[in-house]
TrEMBL record:
It comes from the Bacteria. Pfam families: Phage_tail_3. This is Phage tail tube protein, TTP. InterPro entries: Phage_tail_3 (IPR014918).
Amino acid sequence: MAGITSVETKLFCKAKGDTDFTEIELLMEVPELGGDPEKIDVTTLSDKVKKYIPGVKDLGDLAFKFLYDNSTANSNYRVLKGLEENNTLATFKVQYPDGTAHEFDAYVSVKMDAAAVNAALTFTATFSLQSDITVTNPS
């Protein structure tokens, strides 16, 4: 089994009502995708050890890092900032080099990262999940 490198991992976006995904370019970092269910304590007074059942998963927010580009109408910063300003629910897809993809619906918020000498100008887009994360495998 070969490992997957991050080369050619891409993020795509589709606003509700759109039919096609558009790539959000200059992606630098993808967060962990997935989550663990909360533990619900079901221990009774007659139990000798604590017992749990799985509860609801809290997938948290997803923070993606991008190299900043605001040079065109389709630049990564403008597209994501536009979704934030219009409070647009969109579908996002992270696709890996082998064709595996994670897809989810989310609202986005954008913030500029700190600027420094001899450092790339970046921003972080944080996605507030509104659906489960579905996985599609390559065919």
